[in-house]
Amino acid sequence: MSDAVGSELVMTRDAIREYWLGHRRLTRRVLELFPEDQLFTYRIGGMRPFGEMVLELLAMAAPMARGLATGQWGEYAQDGPHDKAALLRQWDEDTADIEAAWASMPAGRLVETLTAFGQWTARGYELLQYVVDNEVHHRGQGYMYLRALGIEPPPFWERS
Length: 160
What we know:
single chain, two-stranded antiparallel sheet, about 10% strand
């Protein structure tokens, strides 16, 4: 997974990709478990419905991968399907897009300073960390929703 360089531990590009895709697989399982009729309506304590959170994740992930690969960011737009089957299809299509973009990403891109979507400036790996952290955060909210609905979420450590 990682290569030791001197006393530092360094993640390879492949390890970073697999880490990210593992989180996507787990979030997809949370989405699969979510009741269709609650996806865009159920909320607790003023939080957004999980379906809206998923739309945000879709708006960030594949566009971030494409931006990292091509340097072309386009607009950040948070819209998309509003039914579970379509969200799952979009999730799978975006995962394939992420894989393709990752394969074509230039060497060194993750350490370059970039501006994503014309508004977030950071090194490539920091932009990617934000996307993964944001997904983990919203998946945690999805876990809470599932438990409140009486549904056991998948184990958080199972990302295969």
